[in-house]
Design brief:
- The structure is a single chain.
- By secondary structure, the chain is of the alpha+beta class.
- It has a single domain, classed as Phosphorylase Kinase, domain 1.
- 31% of the residues lie in helices and 36% in strands.
- It has 2 helices and 5 strands.
- A hairpin with a 3-residue loop joins strand 1 and strand 2.
- The protein is globular, with a radius of gyration of 17 Å.
């Protein structure tokens, strides 16, 4: 990715596929999330392209979908820039998993 466009502020997440950074667009100061996905395997490339295609096809149809800024393929890395949000879905999934487990135990 042309890092001149973005100023990386901090790393906000790391996983098996890559790293997510909070960044700012140098011209406007707008906050974006930059996902750097390592492309050492076909699965990683497929994952990144699937996210790109999904976001690009539905973002204009619903206002609550993350806005895709750009997607750039570099050697061994795909970078996806999208609007930055300060939360994750992990807590929601944890609560959902807890209630599903509880419900299963009650009705067992």
């Amino acid at each position: 990715m042309d890092w001149i466009v973005y100023e990386l502020i901090q790393e906000v997440g790391r996983g098996s596929y890559g790293v997510v950074y909070e960044a700012a667009v140098r011209q406007t100061g707008a906050r974006v999330a930059v996902k750097k996905i390592r492309c050492h395997s076909p699965e990683n490339v497929e994952l990144a392209l699937r996210e790109f295609w999904a976001l690009s096809s539905i973002q204009s149809q619903h206002p609550n979908v993350i806005h895709l800024e750009e997607c750039i393929l570099q050697r061994d890395v795909i970078c996806i820039a999208e609007n930055f949000i300060w939360t994750t879905l992990k807590p929601i999934f944890s609560i959902f998993r807890f209630f599903c487990t509880l419900r299963f135990q009650i009705f067992k």
